[in-house]
Write a structure and sequence with these properties.
Blueprint: H1 3-7, E1 11-15, H2 20-31, E2 35-40, H3 43-46, E3 64-67, E4 85-88, H4 102-116, E5 123-127, H5 139-152, E6 157-163, H6 167-179, E7 182-185, E8 191-192, H7 197-209, E9 214-217, E10 223-224, H8 225-236, E11 242-245, H9 247-260, H10 262-274, H11 289-301
Parallel strand pairs: 1-2, 1-4, 2-3, 4-5, 5-6, 6-9, 7-11
Antiparallel strand pairs: 8-10
Helix pairs in contact: 2-7, 4-5, 6-8, 6-11, 8-11, 9-10
Length: about 300
């Protein structure tokens, strides 16, 4: 049986459709035969390409665009009409709207769960994080794991997808390498398996059709942060120049940022703490980080 046969007649809502993973998820669900509704705050933004190679969503990529503000439940009335599967990769990434992890990563997803009540929705696929137990006290982790807990008590069938770093985050390394210097938090020897957004979207579509409660997903390469940085220099054709920010200093800077801006401070705290732990997942992706860096470099030179 093909992917399309499995998905025949299925209708999915993709929340976070303008994010890095969400854009690929819209396309992958559609390619797999689903009827797709994309949730976005701005259809114009949906039609534009995202950062680090994430695609623009063309009219043919989805069947319906629902414009709503996920942090405002009243704007979501009717969003679940006819939907049987919800996919969410909603979370703070590069927003500068002052909202917290509690407001976005937790409450926005809680709003989606609430709207499933009394609807035709039967399955919820949620993208969380790998290694949450190692960074359990961080605001972002608390928010994500509250969503996981709420899904477990919701009565819905659900799957939690736990990736080990996105290629979109690795794109920042290439940008720094092109400028001649990469800054690392800590010694950069923590190991991880970053995954391309399209590969992760494929894992998520499989999760929507499957029965696993949790799925861990990594790309084809296991590497350290330092090795990823050196790879960025290699692709950029620049001599490697690494500057290591000691963890004690990085933690102090994150605390200072948090006193001035909670959103940026929480993000900084996550980046610093994540730099201390390993996050190695099964190799589910096939696109290598080197190929991704080469693609980004080619795009920027075009």
């Amino acid at each position: 049986m093909t992917d399309i046969d499995d998905a025949k007649g299925k209708r999915v809502l993709v929340a976070g459709a303008t994010g890095y993973v969400g854009r690929y998820a819209v396309q992958e669900f559609k390619r797999s035969g689903y009827w797709v509704r994309a949730l976005t705050r701005s259809e114009a933004k949906l039609r534009q390409a995202g950062p680090f190679g994430a695609p623009a969503i063309e009219p043919a990529d989805c069947d319906d665009v629902f414009v709503g503000e996920i942090t405002k439940p009243s704007s979501l009335d009717g969003i679940m009409d006819g939907i049987d599967t919800v996919f969410s990769a909603v979370g703070i990434s590069r927003q500068r709207d002052g909202l917290t992890f509690e407001q976005v990563d937790y409450q926005a997803n809680r709003n989606l769960i609430d709207h499933c009540a009394g609807s035709t929705v039967r399955k919820f696929v949620y993208v969380s994080m790998l290694g949450a137990d190692q960074i359990a006290d961080l605001a972002i982790t608390i928010a994500h794991e509250r969503v996981v807990s709420d899904l477990a008590s919701s009565g819905l069938s659900y799957t939690i997808v736990r990736p080990s770093g996105y290629f979109s985050d690795m794109g920042v390394l290439l940008d720094m390498a092109k400028r001649g210097r990469v800054f690392l938090v800590g010694d950069g020897n923590n190991r991880f398996t970053p995954i391309h957004g399209r590969d992760l979207a494929g894992v998520c579509v499989e999760a929507a059709r499957g029965s696993d409660i949790e799925v861990e997903a990594g790309g084809p390469d296991t590497m350290t942060q330092r090795e990823a940085a050196l790879l960025a220099f290699e692709v950029a054709g620049k001599p490697p120049r690494l500057t290591v920010i000691p963890l004690w200093l990085a933690k102090g800077l994150a605390s200072g940022i948090k006193m001035l801006n909670t959103q940026f401070g929480d993000l900084a705290e996550f980046i610093v703490t994540a730099g201390e732990v390993d996050a190695v997942a099964p190799h589910r992706g096939r696109r290598s980080l080197k190929e991704h860096f080469e693609h980004l470099l080619e795009e920027s030179s075009a």
